[in-house]
Amino acid sequence: MDPVIVVGAGPVGLTLSLALAAQDVPCVLLDEGPGTEEVRLARTVVLREDTADLVERLGAAGLEKDGLRWSGWRSMRRKQLVREVPLGAGPDASHDAGDAGDVRDFGDAGAAGDQGGPSLPAPLHIPQHALASALRAAVAAAPLVELVPLSRIDTLEQDRDGVTVHTKGSGTTWWRGSYLVGCDGARSTVRKLLDIRFPGRTAVERHAVAALRAELPWPGEAVLHRQPPWRGAGAEVGARPLPDGVWRLDWLLPPRGELVTPDALITRLRDTLAGWCGETPPYELLDTGVHTLHHRLARRWRVQRAFLAGDAAHLLGALGTQGLDEGIRDAENLAWKLAHAWHHRGGDPLLDSYQAERRAAVAARLRAADQSLPILRGGGGLRTLVPGAVRGHDTLLADGHLGRGALGAPPSYSHSPLAPPHAEAHTTVGTPPGAPVADVRVTAPDGTAVRLRERLGQGHPLVILVAPGTGVWDRRHWLTAGIMPRLVEAVEALPSAAELLVTESYPGASAHTVLLVRPDGHLVAAFAGVRPAELFTAARAALGGAPGAGGGDEDGESDENGESGGGERGAARAPGPRERVHADRTARIN
Predict the structure, then answer these.
(1) How high is the mean pLDDT of the chain?
(2) What is the spatial distance between Cα 394 and Cα 76, in angstroms, rounded to a whole number?
(3) Which residue in 34, 451, 471, 539 has its CB near the most CB atoms, within 10 A?
(4) How many angstroms separate the most distant Cα atoms in the chain?
(5) Which of 146, 125, 140 is nearest to 248 (CA)?
(6) Which range is least confidently modeled, 34-43, 183-192, 301-310, 547-556?
(7) CA gap 203, 315 in Å, rounded
(8) How far are the Cα atoms of 30, 368, 516 from residue 541, in angstroms, in the given order?
(9) What is the pLDDT of residues 535-553, one digit of tens each?
(10) Could you give the C-alpha distances from 220 to 2, 15, 240, 434, 487, in angstroms and in order?
(11) pLDDT per residue over 121-140, tens digit each?
């Protein structure tokens, strides 16, 4: 089989290549650059718990050393503390300033708030070059990934059996692949060659950015200060910590303001530090820049055997939303579907579900941000006088930055075309169908006890039995007791290989509940007991609904939308562009 061609070696392309390799799919990673990363401390990314876990699971080492997990979130308005949210520790980690006994001058922020509930996970804040370098090191150690630097594509052709691209750079070469994914950024060449429109809004937000080493009053906490009281502060300034006393500061700029000169930035920086610390403390300026955010969404994310992911497919980032987070989720969603199509049959229902799920999720995120922008950035008017308005605005912004709500929560694919039809055997648990499963501790039949997320990304579904007491039993007993033998038989009969796991408990689930989980960690369905027929039907639907769990037409003919099926693996190929692919430059990885 020809490898999958990934165009673009940014964090999304690197993540996708590693995710495919983890599922035994060879890749050619075409990198337009020289294969090194420019060190820019003013260019950082925030990874939510699920995306940080994914890249670490794929082999990106040293993230905890190069990045910092926030210990808390602090929102301020003028001279008042509006909200303080400890992160990553304690059962009551979120509370409002009005409920904190040691907080004064909280103004109208004292309404009852987010008490109770579990603590919020701490996001990981890391320089983008450090993240990319860690992923590159993992790629270098992956034998199934061939990274080719200085390779810019200028031709893309498709036929029934694969994709052919031509690259220019250090050498002129033709490459042949089974599929192609464009992860080549906002100015994607792949998107242009596929003639896909990229509509949206330009310069939704502009920020002046500075990275500096200084001692601020909130070590380890991220801060968002709206309407700071000092002169010339602007509408909003944020501070996000990094290791070794380094901070990234962002000042919201007028959308059509003048260019930010170095002198103006230094003045803004000194005034901000003085406003927070009482006087300007010693600081070391490390990097500066101006960051402009756009909102765009590609019309299509798939054309036959070619796909878009990351910034090539969408741009977002206003109000604290994280575009790289969504790009990494694109890679996770697409990887297992491509891997299944590569190993079995190229099924259109399964591959089409990538666009259906991911485009809808990003569109909802963009829609929420666009609807919130006039409220949060309109300024003045009666909105600032309405009781509770400040608190509501702060909640919207905190959602985007902390990864919750419409602006930040991990996506749920409840309306996915892969969702199984409802059955009477389905039961309700704490996770809705289509949402990411809870990261509970599970035990494999060989006795290995791990977190559930550690079993994801291996290309096969997971079946989880909720069986209280198994943690203290000898597995020789519970493997042959009760409903376990019948469940083993049901799992072995599924249309695709699946891994059977056992957990002591799962949120909202009763004993003997059986969960079916997709390879990317989204819940397919939960069943009250062992239901072999319903379990088979749900697994078949989640894998595209076709024989061999692949889907698509038996003869590989194009569907009504012009998307071609995979055809039989190993079948003779008709003459086409691949005749130009020289044997000594083939992209095939043996």
Answers:
(1) 84
(2) 9
(3) 539
(4) 76
(5) 125
(6) 547-556
(7) 11
(8) 34, 30, 12
(9) 999 999 999 984 444 433 3
(10) 47, 28, 8, 34, 47
(11) 999 999 999 999 999 999 99
**Residue 463 phi, psi dihedral angles, 5° rounding:** -115, 125
Report the distance separating Cα 184 and Cα 166, nearest Å. Answer: 15
Q: Specify the amino acid at residue 34.
A: P
Closest CA to 340 of 163, 516, 458, 170: 458
Distance CA 483, CA 464 (A): 13
If one counts every other C-beta atom within 10 angstroms of the C-beta of residue 411, the result is 20
Contacts of 201-204 with CB under 8 Å at 24 or more apart are 201/294, 201/295, 201/296, 201/370, 202/294, 203/255, 203/256, 203/292, 203/293, 203/294, 204/255, 204/293, 204/294, 204/295, 204/318, 204/369, 204/373
* Amino acid identity, position 465: L
Query: pLDDT, tens digit, for every residue of 286-330?
Result: 999 999 999 999 999 999 999 999 999 999 999 988 999 999 999
Cα(217)–Cα(219) distance, integer angstroms: 6
Q: What is the mean pLDDT of residues 441-459?
A: 88
DSSP 522: B
- Residue position matching structure tokens 């290995």: 448
The backbone torsions φ and ψ at residue 256, rounded to the nearest 5 degrees and listed phi first, read -125, 40
Q: CB neighbours (10 Å) of residue 35?
A: 13
> Per-residue pLDDT tens for 266-298?
999 999 999 999 999 999 999 999 999 999 999
Determine the pLDDT at residue 567. 34
Phi and psi angles of residue 173, each rounded to the nearest 5 degrees, phi first: -145, 145
Of 507, 397, 402, 500, give the one whose Cα is nearest residue 455. 500
The pLDDT of residue 499: 94
Distances (CA, A) of 411 to 244, 326, 364, 450, 569: 33, 9, 9, 24, 33
Whether residue 177 contacts residue 3, with contact meaning beta carbons closer than 8 Å, is answered with yes
What number of residues does the chain have? 590
Task: Check if the beta carbon of residue 410 is closer than 8 Å to that of residue 50.
Answer: yes
Query: Position 147: which residue type?
Result: L
Alpha-carbon gap, residue 309 to 27, rounded angstroms? 16
- Across the strands, what pairs with 502? 443, 465
Q: How far apart are CA 466 and CA 512, in angstroms?
A: 5
Token output for 325: 């987070």
Contact 489, 479 (CB under 8 A): no
Residues with Cβ < 8 Å from 243, sequence gap 6 or more?
Answer: 65, 66, 67, 68
Q: Which of 269, 257, 192 is nearest to 233 (CA)?
A: 269
